[in-house]
Amino acid sequence: MAHLHKDPYPGFKRGQNEGLDAYFERTQKKLLELSRRSAEQCRKEETEGVLLRFPVADGYAFYLVVKRHPLTLQHVPFGDAYEISDAHIRGLTLHDVAVQITDQSAQHSANDERRSFVSSLKKGQHIHYHNGFGSYVRYLVTRVTPTSVAIKPVALVGNWDTRDIGQRTRTGEVMRGYHAKEVIAGREIDAMLSMPHERNIYEAKTFNRLHNDIDPRKLEPIPLELHDLTPDEAEKARLWKKVEQVVSLLQLEDKDPKEALKAARIVIERALEAE
Prior knowledge:
Blueprint: E1 3-4, H1 20-43, E2 51-56, E3 59-67, E4 72-76, H2 86-91, H3 94-119, E5 126-132, E6 135-144, E7 149-158, H4 162-165, E8 167-168, E9 174-175, H5 178-185, E10 189-190, H6 191-194, H7 231-250, H8 257-273
Parallel strand pairs: 1-4
Antiparallel strand pairs: 2-3, 3-4, 5-6, 6-7, 7-10, 8-9
Helix pairs in contact: 7-8
């Protein structure tokens, strides 16, 4: 039976005047340091100091083993600060920890391959993540220090669909795919911690070129800017917004149908008067 430490692991609380990017970068480094120490403990087959991970939603809940007897875990509130239930914690045993140590040892061997690739990167270098079917995200190596390497997405190249690049809805709103949004945001990430798997990086020795004959290094960036709406397009977008407003009014189940129709008529009349 495991116990939960009464306090979360320190250093993961966002400062009052700390920007989101600075907070994310700082806590990424802190989690990476905990992971490095955990790897050392796993290699020694030690229990205390091992960082446990439990899948939750779209991420992980992190807990540090701070005591072997009695087994005590401390919550590490990284990112969304996911947690597992108290019942789950109480049910954990040293055997469960040993299983994670075994799994992590195998993962750390894979991390050695990743670490080797990341340590070979040079500031100013471009690398290319293959998203599938000839579509690539170009990353720029922005910072190299003795302890970390930072990269950021700077372009999409290759065979991207229009929906991924960006398009306007009928009401004029811009819709973009995840990677296009990331390129526009241009946020730095820690290569060791957050870079896509190196086997999907074109420049890595482990990249499979057998079925990927496109060389992304020679491709021009795909423009992500969308043209401004023409006056006619802007007017159509305005009217489509009104149409959607009317549809929304007519779908209100708690309204009297006459009242819904009256409200819809007002929206329609005002929309047409503005032409």
